[in-house]
Amino acid sequence: MKRILILLSVIMLLSCGKNDPIAQLENLNGYWEIRKVELEKDSVMEYGMSQYIDYIEIKDSTGFRKKLQPKFGGGYIETNTAEKITASIENNKLILHYSTPFDNWKEEVLKANGEELVVKNKDEKIYHYRKYTPILTENDEKEKE
């Protein structure tokens, strides 16, 4: 009986460490801010505060990603760039297929939880995002008045 409990515990620990593509898909929606890009093994480009953030919305495996510019005091200015997204699970990995009138590409989701998004493109570059939270909201502005 002890062996069965130990075996079940090990299996549960190992499965918790893996990224479930269905759970990843559920965590993609929202506002994301770029943190860093791993260009090569020893080459990382760090980002401070970015002028733009990404908004991702996916329902029933289809949706879009749009660049937004946060406004001081709250709200966003939309850019004219929107990319169609189709999500699929391939070899137990979440793959995002993007398309615009000019190009098509895909990225593998390495991690997607409530706070962090990590994707890898065809060039093996790894993009790290964090959930975006505004520095100052409209409510903060009203409290100052």
Span from first to last CA?
Answer: 66 Å
Task: Report the CATH C-level class.
Answer: Mainly Beta
- What is the name of the CATH architecture? Beta Barrel
Give the strand content.
Answer: over 45%
Helical fraction equals 10-25%
Structural class category: alpha+beta
How many structural domains does the protein architecture include?
1
Any idea what the shape is? globular
What's the total number of strands?
Answer: 9
Q: Biggest sheet, open or closed, and with what strands and sense?
A: 8 strands, antiparallel, barrel
Q: Provide the succession of SSEs.
A: HHEEEEEEEEEH
Mean pLDDT: 84
Pfam families: Lipocalin_4 (PF13648)
Organism: Gramella jeungdoensis
InterPro entries: Lipocalin-like
Protein name: Lipocalin family protein
Provide an overview of this structure.
It is built from 3 helices and 9 strands; from the N terminus they run H-H-E-E-E-E-E-E-E-E-E-H. The protein has 145 residues and is α+β, with helices and mostly antiparallel strands. The chain has one domain: Lipocalin, CATH 2.40.128.280. The chain has an 8-stranded antiparallel beta barrel. A hairpin with a 2-residue loop joins strand 1 and strand 2. The N terminus and C terminus are likely disordered.
Record keyword descriptors for this entry.
Lipocalin; single chain; disordered C terminus; Lipocalin family protein; 8-stranded antiparallel beta barrel; Lipocalin-like; 145 residues; alpha+beta
